[in-house]
Design a protein that fits this description.
Four copies of one chain form a homotetramer. By secondary structure, chain A is α/β, with parallel strands linked by helices. Chain A has helices at residues 2-9, 23-32, 53-56, 92-101, 118-125, 132-137, 143-152, 161-174, 205-208, 222-234, 267-278, 325-339; strands at 13-18, 38-43, 82-85, 105-108, 139-140, 155-157, 184-190, 213-214, 240-246, 253-260, 284-286, 304-311, 314-321. Chains in contact: A-B, A-C, A-D, B-C, B-D, C-D. Chains A and D meet through strand 7, strand 8, strand 9, strand 10 and strand 12 of A and strand 7, strand 8, strand 9, strand 10 and strand 12 of D.
Chain lengths: 355, 355, 355, 355
């Protein structure tokens, strides 16, 4: 109790956000304005630089009174304890490097620090990665799996939204080497806010409403990320087939994973393995037999809900999370809580936004 | 500061909810599980009696572990400081009466205690109202207008969702007698959760998606409620024309009000009157000239956003709120906060659920 | 019968479309590929010039095999009997003028020829109108009202979508001088395809889904158009208050009109006047007492559905049509049918796209 | 030409529909009222028996003026050339049998005649199948595969919507024995109208909007149907894993099929096999390399669009169709056209309902 009382009186953590006017930046801002231990010091935006936050996002009125500033002024911005970067891939790393130089710890939403080896990154994004040491230093920010490394990290590579869903859906078995290599097919259905706030024909309302479509069929950027993490858990190579789809909802990812097991395990043994893996995790909810997650129970939360089913010898893991929540900003806040020794659920105890 | 510290140590307020598995009951539960000064003691439901809350609403898992009980067992339920009733019109009053008999204060979501005179109620609902004294005693729970009476009330008649939007859109002028009687046309567009959780053909997904429809054209139940409150504010009769419409969103009401003024006032004078009326209210946000509210900025909140426009001598007030939030459960929590001397915004400081 | 048989053997009408890759152009193409008496000869598009139609719009595969061409090549395009122009306001008139010079009749979707006097146009669009004689010559293409003038017209100004809904909702009474001037408030709810195919933040899926918003509150472009036509029908000035709203559906306009009558007429007399006005019109469906139109019954059609209600002495006309159908492309095809002496319903006998 | 002229003068085909007020019945009615060679003689409905069609479905006003009658009066209904049955599984077969007794040919939408052996049916639906000879006689109504048998059939078992999408996505390879048994995972995303018109909590707007969910994870009714047909095409057993999902659109199924090939074939060879299989089929559209179908291009049509992709040695077939169109009523009309020697595309040449 005294410790808690003490915390009430302590200073708040000062944070900044680079690229705060995309959807992940806006969601992060939304979470942080309600976080009791955090004070937002600055927010950058190139498009809305100089504008008040409530002018760009009226829902922040009565919550935060700041102007967006340009990232080009980064060096003159006030020192903060932590900066989040929601800048795009290929651009983020330069600013992350600058922040680290000033002694500011960073949680980076881009893919710039997600890969252990620079070759994968360079092949995917077709740019040279000049910060290879930082790549090696960065911690992949999946708290349920890398909690201890996150605590002391200077750079967190915040995982991709699809990757988070796939890794959570397979980790208990893969980490025991129980999934048959080459048997994994992953089918994700994603809400459109995950595709960003920049207007495009594909995301135009009348084009994307009342329809659904596969994309990235021949290879999505997050596939190597999933494979890297699953291979590392497995202690041997894991290759997956991954096809994401767009469905007309704002938020959420529903991922259905089809896989086969190496050995024969009963359904109950498999459930037991998942249960043991996640039983202490507040943000992972395992569904009982016959029940499967849906987006409505995880929207606007940091939860990852998992249901398991079987058809003959194929395991079907159904995973639901919010692509802006556990798939991005929520997970980043969870990482921050760990890094700064706050209760891990602080600022994240929200029920799904139902109905 | 000491007072606040004291409050941290005090007991939580014990509350119960009658009819907790409709949408307003579920929303109220959602708000209360996060309210720092409240403990939910019991929840009733006839349809789901005996079931665990997380079985009916998986989004409550990890938040609340209670079983629904039947309202028929009300007399044997634990004493609480406050009960909310989300029971339907005509049924609620009987249970409200029982609660009061046990010395339990009540916030009632139904229309059963909204009317000053029993005749209006009886004409509307075609049933006799046996609790005429309670009718006179009940306080109409619009905090921004009846704050002081709410504080000491035993029964709060929680206002209708449409009524709240219309009253807020007109109150500043009506209370000064500035609106020309007979000139008010109100057009509301409402999300479908406001129509309840019971499955009907009209609310079936494929029937209500990709369409819009007027309803209650020849007289909606909340029209007399609006007229009663506006007339009271005006000090003379106010009659309105009111047509609600269903639009395919889950939550939110957008109300557009067309009215004419008695006297000539400049646009700036009118804005000034609204500003003066609402300037101390956290939950009412007046938009600047040329800007109008939209549902996305008020979804899942207790805010009521208002924008003003003009065409010739007609004033156009555009009002947005969440029908389950400021239009129901949020407003009820605000009333509770006032009744029990909590900070009025406690448990209600949420930004709009964007995007 | 012989006349019909004869028509089967006759040549098809040759038509072209300027600006064929916006939503009205795409809808017009969709209607014309199924029209038994029409052959599309060319389609222009600046953005997609040189591309195959089925590459831009896969739904046209197996229906039409043409490449889009640039409007800059208009003079070298094959002669057609009729051209539609779906070019934007201010740009369309120049090309319409060129088409007329080549002896090609035109149906213009823009506002360029909708106003009788050039001053209104010039005030609204802030550009000079160089074709004042054509303005006077152009016929306002509301078939149910101007059928006889349409027949012989060289230029049809195809009406605005909102205007069509408002004029149909008021015409029977206004044309008898029965509506009290200054009493008309019009509230429209419109699907987003009516706002065009160019990607903007406002029409971005995650911005416009699950919300609703008023726009043009201080004066929409189609307001003078409605007033001009209603005043003409009335034989005296009609001023209206008009506020359109965006709702998250692809197609459709639901317009609710509030007005007061000059004289006392019974509800049945008013219904009788509407009935008499529309009884011979296939595309106008008057609803019986107590029933109101909804978008789902008019989507993808040329119908205009009307329901009437009353609150005290206020008449409430609820009108539903498809903004791309009766509000644009459907009405244009109806005008074409009249101009070329085809059965008026040819190519337009579609039921609503339900569910 | 003379043959065509002749047809213009011939009598129309007389048809009846059993169970005409569910979504498949309504869609079938919608297609038939516009079919030039068909006259609807009667429609049955238990729920709406005695009501006018336009009272139940206002979109049919001006198109068809019939009252629904009860199926209990079947024996006294006028003789027709063909009856469709949209009655539910387990109920339909009794009425189909009666129709056949009167010499009326039948297209049955239920699963009652889809299985070759009665055991599969009886295991799935847990009822005895008393019409085993009819089971053997019935033709599985996939025109692109069983065209010649359909022509002379007395009973057509109209295929399931999911089955149609899966069979079309695999038939070219399966019929050559090229797919590796045990490698097929099928993930379908379906619009909600496919789940029927009866109101349920799951299909209630606010429950099913802005979410997505797997269902039938442990075994869907249409899985044995797909397996039966694919095994028959393959000449050896084909077992699949099949998980359908609900997504918030009215219509459409997007099916993504993951499979491995027995032999090594190049991508171009695989495309060639699909091309050869479907090149004469109007209603199957194969997409070019890198393009994938979406629901918007097939909504309200009888098309089945297919795109092919690859990840390592896994073939990904993406299939889109309308569950009420090619997945039900459209396919039934196509079957009728074949049975009665009409042009196969008659009454079905609709582009997708875009946007």
């Amino acid at each position: 109790m005294f410790k808690d009382l003490f915390k009430i009186f302590t200073m708040k953590l000062k944070v900044g956000i680079l690229g705060a006017t995309g959807y992940t930046g806006a969601e992060l801002t939304r979470l942080l304005v309600r976080h009791p231990r955090v004070e937002i010091i600055w927010l950058t935006s190139e498009k809305f630089s100089g504008k008040k936050i409530s002018e760009v996002f009226p829902h922040f009125r009565n919550f935060l009174d700041l102007d967006y500033t340009s990232v080009t002024k980064l060096s003159s911005l006030e020192y903060v304890d932590l900066s989040f970067s929601c800048l795009p891939h290929g651009k983020s790393m330069f600013f992350v490097n600058k922040l680290l130089d000033r002694g500011i710890r960073v949680i980076d939403f881009s893919a710039d620090f997600r890969f252990v080896d620079h070759e994968t990154y360079e092949r995917l994004y077709r740019v040279r990665h000049p910060y290879r040491e930082l790549l090696r230093e960065a911690v992949y920010g999946l708290p349920e799996i890398h909690r201890s490394e996150i605590k002391g990290a200077r750079i967190i590579a915040n995982p991709g939204c699809f990757s988070t869903s796939v890794i959570f859906g397979l980790a208990p078995l893969v980490s025991k080497g129980l999934i048959k290599e080459g048997s994994i097919n992953v089918d994700s259905k994603a809400g459109l806010a995950g595709a960003g706030r920049a207007p495009t024909l594909e995301l135009h309302f009348s084009e994307s409403n009342e329809t659904a479509q596969a994309f990235g069929v021949n290879g999505h950027d997050q596939k190597p990320e999933m494979e890297q993490e699953l291979s590392s858990l497995n202690g041997g190579p894991i290759n997956i087939v991954f096809v994401p789809h767009r469905i007309p909802v704002n938020r959420g990812i529903l991922t259905t994973i089809y896989s086969r097991l190496e050995d024969h395990l009963t359904h109950e043994e498999i459930r037991g393995i998942y249960h043991a893996f996640y039983e202490k995790e507040f943000f992972v909810r395992l569904y009982v037999k016959g029940k499967y997650p849906s987006l409505k129970n995880v929207r606007f939360t940091n939860f990852c809900d998992i249901g398991l089913g079987f058809q003959e010898d194929v395991l079907i893991s159904v995973v639901a999370l919010d692509n802006l929540g556990k798939g991005a900003a929520g997970q980043a806040v969870q990482n921050m809580n760990i890094m700064f020794d706050f209760p891990e659920v602080e600022g994240l105890r929200y029920t799904g936004a139902y109905p």
